[in-house]
Amino acid sequence: MARKLKADRVLFSATLLLVCTSIVMVYSASALVALERFDQPYLFVTRQAMWTVLGLAVLWIAMHVDYRTYRSDAFVWALLGIVGVTLIGVLFSNPVNGTRRWFGIGGLGIQPSELAKLACVFFTALILERRMHRIDDVSYSMVPLAIVVAPMVGLILLQPDFGTAMSLILIVSAMVFAAGLHYRYLVGTLLVMLPAVYVVLVSAPYRRRRLLAFWDPWADPLGDGFQIIQSLIAVGTGGVFGQGLMAGVQKLFYLPEPHTDFIFAVIGEELGLVGATGTLICFCLIAWRGLRITARAQDQFGAFIALGITTMLVVQAFVNMSVVIGLMPTKGIPLPLVSAGGSSLVISLLAMGVLLNISQHETTAA
């Protein structure tokens, strides 16, 4: 039986703690870089604070909008249409660091691929709720998903953004697996995809260099291995309690973009094992409460959305932290709720707001 509850306090607290950590660490990681490059030490933290205010407002609104509102065909298809148009449009934007992932609006970057992940979560939940009774009838249940998700993945790969494209595939795969699709279909799809993934990886010279740097960064310590080496030095020198807030060295033009993709390295250096573990615990709490909300959701639609959002945030965090400590090749994926970046922060907080709303409609069963 459904009951109206307060939003999950543990989930909300973990989210708020990560957002507060973001403000502090973005300033610490970016102040000197911003001073040197733009003569404005507060540039990046001011932008992050503005995005945080907007993101928290979006979270509050999403918390108070019944998640069943998103079950509407009109809403989902309109959202997919907006995402599709923006993903195509961004391919004609001015390149940034060799990629076309952002629209520049008033000096701020808007990344449509972040919204694409949430849009695909809503669409996949809608399809699975209606068709999971024949989940192993692939033409009935899976083909509609592929028709929408595959072009999204393709457009994101064209930017190019391999990490986000793979994240989107993992999110949808987790939702489909939870719907009960027989593992042989997932394994078969994986085997079919492997050659395509291999071609994508080796077709771009920079991806090949990243793979080689991952296997042996010291083979090219001043080139492709430089980033991961500096990240490992930052994490290693942090020790148990860290060098102290603002006292890190690797952020001083050794670690490229320390306030974005490698902010976890700055946390490790300045706050040590204690700070890095605290950040990891926050994401573990998000995973735990997200899966708990999934299990207790009032209906299948809410359960699939909760699972998709939880997977979206936790997988991205796992990948980012794995890159920082050298367990995965460099991918350019930010640490959700922590890294500097407006699109990622606002969409992540929007997703958390939806998840918190679902937690208010749990069933009485444990």
Descriptive report:
The protein has 366 residues and is an all-alpha fold. The protein has one domain (9-359). It is built from 13 helices and 2 strands; from the N terminus they run αααββαααααααααα. α3 runs antiparallel to α4, α6 (143-157) packs antiparallel against α7 (162-178) and α10 packs across α11.
List the helices and strands and how they pair.
Elements: H1 9-38, H2 43-63, H3 73-89, E1 103-105, E2 108-110, H4 112-131, H5 138-141, H6 143-157, H7 162-178, H8 183-203, H9 205-215, H10 226-238, H11 263-296, H12 300-324, H13 342-359
Antiparallel strand pairs: 1-2
Please work out how many helical segments DSSP would assign: 13
Query: How far apart are the termini?
Result: 11 Å
Rg result:
20 Å
Structural class computed from helices and strand pairing = mainly alpha
DSSP E strands, number? 2
How much strand?
under 5%
Number of domains: 1
Spans where pLDDT lies below 50 across 5 or more residues: none
Give the topology string: H per helix, E per strand.
Answer: HHHEEHHHHHHHHHH
Largest sheet: 2 strands, antiparallel
Mean pLDDT: 88
Overall body shape: globular
Strand order, largest beta sheet = 1-2
Percent range of helical residues = 55-70%
Task: Quickly list its features.
366 residues; mainly alpha; 13 helices
What would you say about this model in short?
This protein is an all-alpha fold and 366 residues long. Helices cover 67% and strands 2% of the residues.
